[in-house]
Amino acid sequence: MNYILTDKEPKLPLKYFEDISAIPHGSYNEKAISAFIADTAAKLGLYARVDERNNVVVKKPATPGYEHLPALLLQAHVDMVNEKNSDSDHDFTKDGLKLILEGNILRADGTTLGADDGKGVAYMLALMDSDSDAFPHPPLEFLFTTGEEVGFWGAMALDCSDITARRMIGLDAGPEGVVATTSAGAQEVIFSIPTEYEPVKGDVLAVSVRGLLGGHSAMNITDEKGNSNKIMGRLLHNAAKVADFRLCHITGGAMFNAIPREADAIIAVEPGKKQAVIDKIAKVTAELQDELAASDPGLTVTVTDAKADKMLSAAVTKAVVECLYNVPNGVRMMNKQVPGLPVTSTNMGVVKTLEDKITVDTMLRSSSKSLNDDYVDNICTVGKLAGMPEVWVGDWMPAWPYMAGSKMRELAKKMYKERTGEDMRELAVHGGLELGVFSEKMPGMDIVTLGCTSGNEHTVTEWMDIDSYARVYQFMKDFIAELCK
Fold first, then answer.
1. What is the CATH number of the domain that holds 274?
2. How would you class 481 by CB atoms within 10 Å of its CB: exposed for 0-12, middle for 13-18, buried for 19 or more?
3. Are 248 and 266 in contact (CB under 8 A)?
């Protein structure tokens, strides 16, 4: 492959970032990248175990003289969110990412970059490949997990019996100079309704929502960005006030944990009411553009003539539209002690028309299990009242509780202060971290997080600062060496 980063420092982790970028590794498609990790370990003569969910555990012996020290675990997830521009022909099942370097900023061409959490995966591969004689370290254990972006799928099923460490660096983190201290739990709720079709009648129109910025459903949820699925629900709910129509097809969003940027619906409007629907949608669009002028100035809604052979029944149409319109979305409660931190929120991430049903997929996040349970009950009730007969509720993904007196966290803060003269900032995050799962599976684990500066995760404008990437890699190596003292 043609490397674009290997003239930059540090060469080893940047090389591995390019290597994994060439391997498709979206959620549920991690077999190839897990095999690459295991093959790399084998070439380096290291122990490696791959389980049935393609999680990989690798062990590296300590630098000679430090074998007696307790082991250190490093962890990152190998899957990425597959988001692309609607006009992109990128195939996430077989195409590698096209990386673009502009100054010190790395991004991908028309797709997500996968720095979440490719940056951590590449760090770990580089540490596996590093010269132990030049890099003093205790016994190292590496955990590469799968399916993090779709509900901690790998971590939840992980057998931890061969992991001995009770000190850990979590690398699904950042930005530089920030250490996470706690994270929210999460739960998925999917509404569905069987499809019932009839021959199409009336005028067929295509309604498209475009130009939203989207974002991460945790980090950007307080930005109150436009959600394309909720916007489509509002447009169609209002269109129903001026005309009868039927859905023929509807889709929106790509991942339940990404704020959706685009949505499309094809509707069949009763004869003689086409213009009334167009005018109503135009009026609501103008209102939305005014409301979202600060957060999503590029919002557009287009209505064009279309074709369809069949349309959904009136009952199915009404249920889907009212589900989109009425099911709550966004922040429900803010933390009164930590400014800017949500306690509970939800994101209506994906709407799909499948062969036999239509689904509406939402993700809830909360640092409070009781509030989460109440919100799940609330959302399920609203969905059923809207007419969605089937509701699937996923497993609770545990929150990561605050650990008072963490020696790992205090050492990182001390070293950062000595090197930069600045205080390392502690951050409670609304996003879900697998650290909650590991703290339950491996009680007593002392965890610190480290990560470089990156941004716009789960969107096509995702980026990573490679200068920060280099600094954090060196800091991590120094931190691990310090554990030998």
1. 3.30.70.360
2. middle
3. yes
Instruction: Give the C-alpha separation, 435 to 148, whole Å.
Output: 11
On whether residue 178 sits in a domain, the answer given is: no
Residues 208 and 147 both lie in one domain: no
* Confidence check: pLDDT of 117 > 70: yes
DSSP E strands in 253-371: the ranges are: 258-259, 263-269, 300-305, 310-312, 330-334, 342-353, 357-366
DSSP 346: E
Considering the domain boundaries, does residue 302 fall inside one?
yes
Question: Which of helix, strand or coil describes residue 40?
Answer: helix
pLDDT (average), residues 188-214 = 97
| Domain of residue 74, CATH code | 3.40.630.10
DSSP state of 16: H
How far, in Å, CA of 423 to CA of 178, rounded? 9
158 plus 192 within the same structural domain: no
Which residues, including other chains, have CB under 8 Å from residue 262's CB and lie 6 or more apart? 86, 208, 209, 210, 212, 228, 252, 253
**Residue 142 shares a structural domain with residue 24:** yes
70 plus 104 within the same structural domain: yes
Length of the chain as a residue count: 485
Q: How many domains does the chain have?
A: 2
Integer CA distances (angstroms), 483 to 92, 140, 295, 476, 480, in order: 40, 12, 44, 11, 5
- Per DSSP, the three-state class of 180 is strand
Give the Cα-Cα-Cα angle 292, 297, 302 (nearest 5 degrees). 90
**Cβ 181 vs Cβ 249: under 8 Å:** no
Asked whether residue 119 is assigned to any structural domain, the reply reads: yes
User: Is there a single domain that holds both residue 47 and residue 158?
Assistant: yes
Domain of residue 255, residue span: 187-393
Are the beta carbons of 319 and 386 closer than 8 angstroms? Answer: yes
Same domain assignment for residues 130 and 164? yes
CB-neighbour burial class of residue 343 (10 A; exposed 0-12, middle 13-18, buried 19+): buried
129-184 tens-digit pLDDT: 998 878 899 999 999 999 999 889 999 999 999 999 999 999 999 999 999 999 99
Cα–Cα dist 70/2, whole Å: 40
Residues 230, 258, single domain; the answer is yes
Give pTM, 2 decimals.
Answer: 0.81
What counts of helices (H) and strands (E) characterise the chain? 11, 24
Give the integer Cα–Cα distance in Å for 288 and 286. 5
* Digit-coded pLDDT (tens) for 229-279: 999 999 999 999 999 999 999 999 988 989 999 999 999 999 999 999 999
